[in-house]
Specification:
Blueprint: H1 38-67, H2 79-82, H3 161-167, H4 183-190, H5 206-212
Length: 227
């Protein structure tokens, strides 16, 4: 049998034991690329708006500058600017500004009245310019009578309906008895009965007697009207 000393030597006994290897960490999720951020869009929008606003501002003031009229040349210094007293122009046969027919009658002619300008001048009056000058005597306005305040005369014979009601005549007929005379003529002119066609009973109508010149109230002729 084999001697224990002759047992084969373990050459791996002095080698460090292999440490267990830790498993690799799990793979992280793949990073996905993102689009432009909102801040970038805001910056771009502000730049565009600023460019548009600057262009409009430039165009506006450029147009204003083009419309500015050229300055008129300075007027030559006259007497009022030179410190000298102004020359009296009255008497140069020219009605200059500031002169009139009162301050300089030799240069400014007296204008005649202008009717219709609303001013009653010295040479105007109501006769030659009633448009500007009032009447010396007040003119009372003429007003038409109020039709509602006038008494009613339905048949137009001159007697009001109320008078005809008192007389017993027909207010809708100007000749109630049909004798040829209106009710008003019988009452106010001849004194005949407007309800009796033959007031004196002689067989002739009142209108026939008046037309022939006879008295409708009795015998005889009608009196001649006063001259």
């Amino acid at each position: 049998m084999f001697d224990e000393k002759n047992e084969p030597e373990d050459i791996l006994a002095e080698v460090d034991p292999v440490k267990p290897v830790a498993p690799p960490p799990p793979a992280s999720e793949p990073v996905t690329s993102r689009g432009p951020s909102r801040l970038l869009f805001v910056v771009i929008a502000l730049v565009v708006i600023g460019a548009l606003g600057g262009g409009a501002y430039f165009m506006f003031f450029r147009g204003e500058a083009e419309q500015v009229p050229e300055e008129a040349p300075a007027a030559e210094a006259g007497p009022e600017h030179s410190g000298e007293e102004p020359e009296d122009l009255c008497g140069n046969d020219i009605c200059d500004p500031g002169e009139d027919n009162f301050s300089c009658p030799g240069d400014c002619e007296i204008e005649g009245p202008v009717c219709g300008d609303g001013l009653c001048l010295q040479d105007e009056d109501f006769d030659n310019c009633p448009e500007d000058c009032p009447s010396p005597t007040p003119i009372e306005p003429v007003t038409d009578p109020d039709p509602l305040s006038q008494p009613t005369d339905a048949d137009g014979d001159g007697l009001t309906d109320e008078e005809e009601m008192d007389l017993g005549t027909n207010p809708e007929s100007e000749d109630t008895d049909s004798d040829g005379l209106t009710d008003m003529e019988e009452i106010r002119n001849y004194g005949t009965d407007p309800k009796n066609p033959d007031t004196d009973g002689d067989g002739f109508l009142d209108g026939q007697e008046v037309e022939g010149g006879y008295n409708p109230n009795g015998p005889g002729m009608l009196p001649a009207p006063p001259l």
